[in-house]
Specification:
The strands form two sheets. A five-stranded mixed β-sheet has the order 2-3-4-5-6, with helices on one face. Strands 1-7 form a two-stranded antiparallel ribbon. The longest helix is centred in the last third of the chain and has 12 residues. The protein contains four helices and seven strands; from the N terminus they run ββαβββββααα. The chain is an alpha+beta fold. The chain has one domain.
Amino acid sequence: MSTDTNELVRLIKPRALPAGTMTVEANQAERAALAKRFGITAIHALTAEVEFGEKDGAVLADGKLAATLEQPCAVTREDFTYDVSEAFSLRFVPAGGLGDYEEDEEFELTEEDLDEIEYEGEAFDLGEAIAQELGLAIDPYREGPDADERREEAGIESDEDRKPSGPLAEALRGLKK
């Protein structure tokens, strides 16, 4: 992770982990840069509450992020605002700590392995990890409150309303009788 290009930088030193719950709050410039990165209109608020622990040489970060996002509706393209709340559990491991695997070697990931983040040096960037968790929480095809009404006005049927057509569909309907 390169901290010179990250929009939300919060460096944490594993040797001096914050005690209790740490609150990360993105400022206006950070939120604007993240909105641009994720291709949405705006991020009106972004906070995360994180607690740290240690296990087997890794730093464990368990937390919850909360954000208020604004983005265009997938149907109407009109902006709308909604809230996101996501829990996360991450493991930060020193470089080379993910295991000694050969380049072409196959190995199986466990559920615990999926959210491991390697870091180099004496600190890891919690801010970038939170930004990535936010990016995963954004639905690029989210529909706003007027989507169904607009779809109906335009005469567009949803997949659930559409009846299959063609010879195979006719044959299957005949079998139902």
